[in-house]
């Protein structure tokens, strides 16, 4: 039987200043904080009802800029499974974001940081656990 050795190469990328300030100033015991890295080269950080999105690919300026958006109000906790970051088309350079609260309030940003569109999804006393992007075949 052979031993398995796992090596991880660290990837350093600076946090945007707004995210660094948020993490330093937030009471970690009371806040709902979760984060993920997407295949699109973006980081998502959710803190309570706020989401911060930034690129982890190093830019020429060196310090990334985070876009801050307010998620729909909820009495429950958000998770990264309740948001979906995507490009509307291959040619689009702007990212879009769709978020759903556990109670079914949808918020859609056609472009990050722009005015969102709000909709209500009737869940019949159920709770949303995730939202998924399904790519069309045609």
From TrEMBL:
Q: Which InterPro entries match?
A: Nucleoporin_Nup133/Nup155_N, Nup133-like, WD40/YVTN_repeat-like_dom_sf
Q: Name one Pfam family in it.
A: Nucleoporin_N
Q: Which UniProt keywords apply?
A: Nucleus, Transport
Q: Biological process GO terms, please?
A: poly(A)+ mRNA export from nucleus; protein import into nucleus; transcription-dependent tethering of RNA polymerase II gene DNA at nuclear periphery
Q: What is its main location?
A: nucleus
Q: Organism's domain of life?
A: Eukaryota
Give start and end of each Nucleoporin Nup133/Nup155-like N-terminal domain.
Answer: 13-127
One cellular component GO annotation, for this chain's record? nuclear pore outer ring
> Where in or outside the cell is it found?
Nucleus
* GO terms assigned for molecular function: structural constituent of nuclear pore
UniProt family annotation? Belongs to the nucleoporin Nup133 family.
Q: Which PANTHER family match?
A: NUCLEAR PORE COMPLEX PROTEIN NUP133
User: What is the protein name stated in its UniProt record?
Assistant: Nucleoporin Nup133/Nup155-like N-terminal domain-containing protein
């Amino acid at each position: 039987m052979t031993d398995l050795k796992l090596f991880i190469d660290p990837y350093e990328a600076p946090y945007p200043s707004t995210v660094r300030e948020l993490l330093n100033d937030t009471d970690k015991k009371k806040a709902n904080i979760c984060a993920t890295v997407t295949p699109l080269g973006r980081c998502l950080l959710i803190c309570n009802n706020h989401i911060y999105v930034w690129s982890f690919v190093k830019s020429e300026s060196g310090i990334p800029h985070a876009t801050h958006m307010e998620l729909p109000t909820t009495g429950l906790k958000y998770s990264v499974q309740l948001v979906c970051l995507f490009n509307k088309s291959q040619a689009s350079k702007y990212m879009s974001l769709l978020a759903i609260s556990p109670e079914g309030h949808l918020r859609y940003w056609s472009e990050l940081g722009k005015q969102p569109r709000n909709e209500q999804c009737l869940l019949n006393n159920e709770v949303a656990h995730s939202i998924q992007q399904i790519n069309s075949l045609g």
